[in-house]
Amino acid sequence: MSTLLYLIPVALFLGGISLVAFLWALRSGQYEDLDGAGERILIDDEEPKKPATPKRR
To answer: Cα dist. 35→14, 40, 43 in Å?
Structure first.
């Protein structure tokens, strides 16, 4: 029974921290463009970059 006196405040504290982190993520725009990353993978670059040629001496 005395263990619950420690575990309940710890659980409430961790839940509060996770709620604050979630609200911070909402306000900073983390969930605004959910499809953008998936679509950027499918778009090709305009021109592939050529590998650098080593200089000869």
So the answer is: 30, 9, 13
- If you search the block for the tokens 């040629």, which residue do you land on? 53
Burial state string for 19-35 with b = 16 or more CB within 10 A and e = fewer than 16? eeeeeeeeeeeeeeeee
Helix (H) or strand (E) holding 49: none
Give CA–CA dist 6/13, Å, rounded. 11
Which amino acid type is present at position 46? E
Average pLDDT along the chain, 57 residues, taken 10 residues at a time: 93 98 93 80 73 73
Amino acid at 33: D
